Amino acid sequence: MVTNQHFRSRELGSKGWLVHPRSGRFVMFDATTLHGVIPGAGHSTDIDSRRITFMCAFWRDIKFRTPNQPKEFCACMPFPATTDTSVSWHRAHLKPLPHGVAATVTPGVAVQPAFVAPVWVSMLEHQSTSLPSYDQCYQGF
Fold first, then answer.
1. To 10 degrees, the CA torsion angle through 94, 78, 82, 22?
2. Does residue 64 carry a pLDDT above 60?
3. Is the pLDDT of residue 4 over 90?
4. Cα separation of 116 and 120, whole Å?
5. What is the DSSP code string of 52-95?
6. What b/e sequence results for 31-66 when a residue is b if at least 16 CB atoms lie within 10 Å of its CB, and e otherwise?
7. What is the distance between the alpha carbons of residues 52 and 35, in angstroms, rounded to a whole number?
8. pLDDT, tens digit, for every residue of 69-78?
């Protein structure tokens, strides 16, 4: 989801655009706006049905950041080295193609993002003594 809320602005975003996940789909946008990946509908034990989100940014000037704790991730951190034993997700999911196998590229298909408004809802109107269950959250997308 990408919103029209800018990071340095004190105004909340009033509009958002959501692109539903599909295999091989990518989205480009102005990263100075508030954006993020909306969680899916629950945890899957089937590893082939899990979603992997890979974010890549193009910077004019970049200052790499270091996570506060081992095995922690943060924005703008260097990609883990293949010899780094503290993390393993990249070795499990980003394996090189076998020798002699070429990558295939499918032609891009433009899609219209889903318009989302309002982006924010006041929780003062929805006060409750407990948090909603996970199944009640993020299901409108």
1. -10
2. yes
3. yes
4. 10
5. --------SS------SSTT---TTPPPPPTT-TT--HHHHHSP
6. eebbbeeeeeeeeeeeeeeeeeeeeeeeeeeeeeee
7. 17
8. 666 667 777 7
- Rounded to a whole number of angstroms, the CA Rg of the chain reads 19
Cα-based torsion angle of the residue sequence 23, 52, 4, 27 in order, rounded to the nearest 10 degrees:
-40
Tell me the pairing of strands 33-35 and 2-6: antiparallel
Q: Would you list the DSSP string of 44-63?
A: -S-GGG----------SS--
Q: For 90-139, write each residue's pLDDT tens digit.
A: 666 666 777 877 777 778 888 899 999 988 877 777 666 676 666 666 54
- CB 19 within 8 Å of CB 111: yes
